[in-house]
Specification:
By secondary structure, this protein is of the alpha/beta class. It is built from 8 helices and 14 strands.
């Protein structure tokens, strides 16, 4: 299984802090946002490589960071060639770039690079192995306004995904979808041809929505929370909250 990290955004909401530096590599205590995530994922036996997809502007920073790593699994950096927020490829196209450039023919764990987690991805991998299908994560969200700003899924009693909507004005459930996915090797043909068949390019949830309509998927409920770093306020809150842990 390949761990594909989508890290090609420009984090414009963090202003000067990320004007010339990638958000995933911002410091949290003695580590970084991304480093804390990889510390967990690197311990998963099924994972045999980490693939970080970034942009041309930040690729040198990621390469310098990579030289100081000591993970068990190799880390590959892919430069998507873009240099501005206006010319970004979008998360789905960045994923397809990694799959095509490395000729990947394996299961994929796909993660966004700007979250701090209170659970292990091992649980998610175990769930996908048990179900034998591509999978998404979900968590209960009772705030309707927050549901209107994310992906929302409907599930049956076996956690099979019956339907998914992106940013619905009238959510059909309280199951919100964070940006973490597992795509099985058998579903890679669907992934590879998703954009040409009408899948949206920008958000990683666009691909999940497309896949739900074309293959069987299940949803794993997060067993603990996460900290989504999307603004200066949430970054500084994370620094204060996690620096001593």
């Amino acid at each position: 299984m390949k761990n594909i990290v989508i890290a090609a955004g420009y984090a414009t909401r963090l202003g000067e802090l990320t004007k010339n530096f990638p958000k995933p590599l911002l410091k949290i205590g003695e580590s970084t946002i991304l480093g804390r995530m990889l510390d967990d994922i690197d311990r998963i036996p099924e994972i045999d490589e980490h693939v970080i997809v970034t942009n041309h502007k930040f690729a040198p920073v990621f390469e310098e960071w990579r030289r100081g790593l000591s993970y068990e699994k190799p880390v590959t950096i892919i430069d998507d060639g873009t240099e501005t927020n206006d010319t970004r490829l979008g998360a789905v196209c960045d994923l397809l770039l990694a799959v095509d450039r490395l000729a990947i023919d394996d299961d994929l764990l796909v993660v966004a690079a700007d979250n701090l987690l209170f659970f292990s991805f091992q649980e998610f991998v175990d769930f996908a192995r048990e179900k034998g299908t591509s999978c998404i994560m979900c968590h209960r969200q009772d705030d309707i306004e927050k549901l209107r700003r994310t992906g929302v899924v409907e599930l049956d009693a076996d956690r099979r995904v019956l339907g998914m909507e992106e940013k619905p004005q009238q959510p059909k459930s309280h199951w919100a979808v964070p940006p973490f996915y597992i795509y099985k090797k058998e579903d890679l043909p669907l992934v590879r041809h998703s954009v040409e068949n009408g899948c949206g390019k920008d958000a990683p949830g666009n691909l999940a929505h497309y896949m739900v309509e074309h293959t069987v998927m299940h949803a794993w409920e997060m067993t603990a929370g996460r900290f989504d770093i999307g603004s200066l306020d949430t970054y500084y809150e994370a620094v204060e909250r996690f620096a001593k842990k």
